[in-house]
Amino acid sequence: MKSENYILLVVNPIAGSSEKKTIIDAVKIEAIKQGYQFKLYQTTGKEDEKAIKSIIEDLKPARVIVAGGDGTISLVAQCVFETEIILGIIPAGSANGMAVNFGLPETLEEQIIIAFSDCYMKIDVLFINSQICLHIADLGINAELVKNYETSGVRGKLGYFLQSIPTLINSDSPFHFTIKTGDEIVEVSGILLAIANANKFGTGATINPRGKVNDGKFEVLVFKNLDFIEIFKTMHDQPDMSSDFVQIISTEKASIKSRKKIPFQIDGEYMGEVNEVNVSVAQEKLLMALPEKFCKLHST
Questions:
Q1: 126 vs 146, which has greater pLDDT?
Q2: CA–CA distance, 155 with 159 (Å, rounded to integer)
Q3: Cα–Cα distance for residue pair 101/119, rounded to 1 Å
Q4: pTM of the full predicted structure?
Q5: In sequence order, which residues have a C-beta less than 8 Å from that of residue 151 and are 6 or more positions away?
Q6: How many other CB atoms sit within 10 Å of the CB of residue 300?
Q7: Residue 141: which of 164, 108, 116 has the closest Cα?
Q8: Distance CA 126, CA 91 (A)
Q9: Which residues, in sequence order, are bridge partners of residue 87?
């Protein structure tokens, strides 16, 4: 049950390089302007999910808005999933893959308008080894990069750039995967296996042109090699990627195993090394405030 009284803003104070006070003040002003009371929660990295769920249960907010990177967005999505609460997002992380994928504008003013708007979509939620995933998870080189970034002292896109070359040099790829769906068993080797509910990485690269966030399916994509011509194609919205570069499997459920433990990340959060992941689409969907253009594009 929703209340008409509160807007809850969840902020990750250390995400990205943006000024969080500016975001907090702007959201608070808009909430008050629209007749809401305002509640702020800043994440600490310790029992945040429990704390956020407790606030939601107590206040029953009309809407929850999250300011942070993809990992923070996934954390808050976990807290509002299976409720009638609409989630609005203010991208404030290092890569902001979800914001790129959803076509969110770059200005804070426009982002706040969308976060408070009545334009929303019911999007798919994936569960990967019981963890929620909204955007993209992967095993291999990109997860190694996320791990190296998290242990470095440099934040933002510069931090990712500085870790990219050492990651490529020191990677143990290629990796060998066995992918089992309801229809087939596939054996394939590659440098990266992505589990994609969406289309794009935060860099803007379109790795999953077939993907739709509300079609009840996800794609398993195995990138077989570092083909820079093929990588360049991903800068387009509808890249025609060669089957020698990537193998794509669309499914509702998958079990993925590797011969050895390899780095694994979900929505920009490093999850450690694993040699098996199990993926399924949840029956319930998540309500998310999104740009009108994106909603119209994906309504068919």
A1: 126
A2: 5
A3: 17
A4: 0.82
A5: none
A6: 5
A7: 164
A8: 21
A9: 64, 288
